[in-house]
Amino acid sequence: MSDAVSFPEIDTSYWQVKDKTWIAERKSQWETIEPRLKTGMNKTQRAMSIIKRYFLKSIMPDFEALSDWKSDFRHLDLFCFIWLHPSRDKQVLKKLRDAYMHSPLVGESDVWLGIGGFLREGK
Question: Can you give the pTM of this predicted structure?
Answer without folding.
Answer: 0.85
